[in-house]
Amino acid sequence: ENPNGEFLFVRRPGYYAAVYTGATSHEWVRSSRKPIPYGKGWEVQEGALVPTNASSRKTAWWPTQGLSLLWTPEAGTAVVGRNWNVYTANVVRIDRADGHVSWPDYWGFTSHWDAETGALRMEQPMVDLPFTTTRRLRFGEDSVAVDISLTGEVTALRDGAVEQIPYLQKEGLVRLFRTGEGAWVSGLAGPVTGAWLGKEAGPGMAILFPKLTALREGQSSRHYGQTMGLLEIPLPREENASLHYEYRSVDQAGLGSLAQ
């Protein structure tokens, strides 16, 4: 379902997904955009970015397209995108040497939905940098496959680019990571082949990689009584970088049966 081309809603037996595909913000807003990771009044407190005054609490960051919600009947909300700041959106981010950031340009967005194959393709230039990002989401019966490519002049990168996976840090959330040997462990240390966010001995969402992949903690944010965590996947430092992973709903007890 894609009402007015602004939202794409996909319902499958095992999950429900919402993707924002619109571009309703006026062009004049674009001229006021600043390439900064968060607005005035946001500060890091106890490790999390928080709004500290009335203006920052009510003012949204810049609009972005992409995956807004991935929900399962058993585990509830798993991945969620917000526009509190750059770290709460499911986008590719590039940190710049001047302290600014780059992310996919809202006003350069194009997309194509293929209902027959259940695939959505989104393409955008990156803000103020000579790069283009292409994101493909394939909605299967029990999984969502993600393919990302970033093309451009690699010398324009300082520290490379990262894929952001924002998630809701719910009370009692358990995080597990699959090592190269196939063991699921609670600590994130070094490359992994998977991650799992869920309830102790209960349902959750796995993020699976086809090979050992670098994964690290990103900047968390707190607002409206909720805390957003962030997982970051560094993209290869190449002129044509690519990344593949998939989301799959699975109970903690079923993690051992997932293909490595």
Structure commentary:
Helix content is 3%, strand content 50%. With 260 residues, it is mainly beta. The strands form three sheets. Strands 9-10-11-12-21-17-16-14-15 form a nine-stranded antiparallel β-sheet, with no helix packed on it. The longest helix is centred in the N-terminal third of the chain and has 5 residues. The chain is globular, with a radius of gyration of 18 Å. The model has no long low-confidence stretch (mean pLDDT 92).
For the termini, the CA-CA separation is 33 Å
Quantity of strands, as a count: 21
Question: Structural class, from helix and strand content?
Answer: mainly beta
Biggest sheet layout: 9 strands, antiparallel
Radius of gyration based on Cα positions = 18 Å
Strand content: over 45%
**Side-by-side strand order of the widest sheet:** 9-10-11-12-21-17-16-14-15
Percent of residues in helices:
under 10%
- Indicate the mean pLDDT: 92
- Helix count, DSSP H or I runs of 4 or more residues: 2
What ranges have pLDDT less than 50 throughout 5 or more consecutive residues?
A: none
Choose one word for the global shape: globular
Q: What is the H/E string?
A: EEHEEHEEEEEEEEEEEEEEEEE
